Amino acid sequence: SVDTVAGLDDDNVVGPFPIGFDFPYYWYDVNEFYVGSNGYISFSDDALEAHPFDPYPNPMRPNDVLAPLADDLLFGPDAWDSTACRYAVNPAADTCVIEYRNVPFWQVPPFGNNTFQIILSKPDSTIRYQYYQQDPAVGSGSRAVGWEDQVGNWGYTYFPGVGNEIHAGLAIAIYDTATVEPPFDDVAVQAVMSANSGGFFTIAGEVLDIWADIANTGNQIESTFDVRMTVRDIGGMPVLQNTQTIVLLNPGEVTTVTFTPWTPTIDGQYTITVENLLSGDMNPNNDEIAVECHVVTLPAIFDYTDGTFEDQKVWAGPEGGFANYFVPPRDSVRIARYEVNISSGTACQDCYRLYVLDDNGPGGLPGDTLAGDTLDYGGIPGWQGADIFPKVEITDGSGFYVVWIHVPAANPWMGTDLTAPLSFQTWEYTGAFAPSRWRYVEDCGIRCVVEPWSVPDVIVSIDEFQRTTVRGAQGVTPPNASLDFAVNFRNTTPGNVATQWWIDAYLGPNLVLTRGPYSLFLLGGQDVNRIYGLPVPSNAPVAANYMVFVRVGTHPDVSHQDSFPVQILARGEQ
Fold this sequence. Notes:
By secondary structure, this protein is mainly β. It has strands spanning about 1-5, 15-25, 30-35, 40, 65-70, 85-90, 95-105, 110-120, 125-135, 145-150, 155, 170-175, 185-190, 200-205, 210-215, 220-230, 240-250, 255-260, 270-275, 290-295, 300, 310-315, 320-325, 335-345, 350-360, 370-375, 380-395, 400-405, 415, 425-430, 435, 445, 445-450, 460-470, 480-490, 495-505, 510-520, 525-535, 545-555, 555-570. InterPro entries: Ig-like_fold. This is CARDB domain-containing protein.
């Protein structure tokens, strides 16, 4: 069967996808791949390759690359209707074909057409690039065709540049001809504290377990070498250091090293650095990872920058933006406010948006919208934002994205911080989300306020709200109309709970209607759904916009609530 790669857009990476078998590549086997929208795949690296494109091999990420046409290509809504990337594995499960079909070059509007394939053949350990169409010969003015290993040490570039060497009917075959691989000693610090070694937040006074994944990325057995971990404060002074010894590490093997736990006591920014101390290591580029660590006491501002912004960013087109990814240090927190540092621009109304997005999209990408606001820029640079109402509640420790999107083209600009350490948690948005191409050189001026929060015994949520109207009016028109909604009550505890629930309606700050309280009894872990109709009387309050709250607790004390807006229209108005 043929599978279509979903989620590709301008300048992004998606995956991983299964090859369907173990394919021998250099001295190691690979079994999955990431797809870059700019005409390349990587067997292990989800970093973005974007204009300008450097020849292969090179140690800059992404590595482990096959690039039949690394150029500024375009997927997404602005590409052709027939633009696609597809892959298939044969019935024998020994050949995988990855095809880029009818892909234009990026421009406004796009131009050209490119169709080409990558073919992985296990029986003879070959890689083939095949070109059906490549038009025009010159795309972005920057191009790379080639391949490289997982550390960017070995590889090859095929006719670098943007001439007409790549053409329809061309096929490039890459054979494994080496009977003996040249010795290559290389141990990599692969990850520290998370898969992407991203910046994180931890609570002062709580024990932090520090770990790192160490990989033998060479082709020699390595034995009895040290790995050193150092925690430094913002001034560079060591506050903790620990060394662990790895006795044996075979080629391709990855081991997790656990260091002495750390209990920070002072809030602030720290750096956790892990170093490989293997003598004779032939690739210094992957010997060390430094991770940005923020020690906080909640409530706290979650901010990866140091407050000084040496640069700024904006997209040339409208509806572009950036995001920061955060993982709360506790399972249960609330997000109370979000802000962006606007460094320059022209005053404008409704010209940028802030969102909180869940990380429940495919592969941890941004998913459900948890909060959102459209805001004005008054022309004065600095932190701009809004309080979030209702506050976003995180109950399972999952991560979230705080997103800034500018509505017009090239206005306003967001400040960026170029000073190490960096968080590597910055994302870009150009119609789709992707790890920022600048995440290894700067942090975005996007932050949020996170509060402590304990999950109440009973959580209420309005699952569905339906305005019942007279003759299809957009609001609710008295008389003979009602607000019909489905409400869910969930017992978060294993024991039985007896509590109350009620409804309050507000016009601005003024309470104008209460219904209840009503008794509520839930068994341990029980979910209850109820449909409720709230009649709008003929003598309803003035036509206006109201907020309706469903609350649980011991009336009038609220332990949890959810709300929705409703518009009351003038009598007879449509």
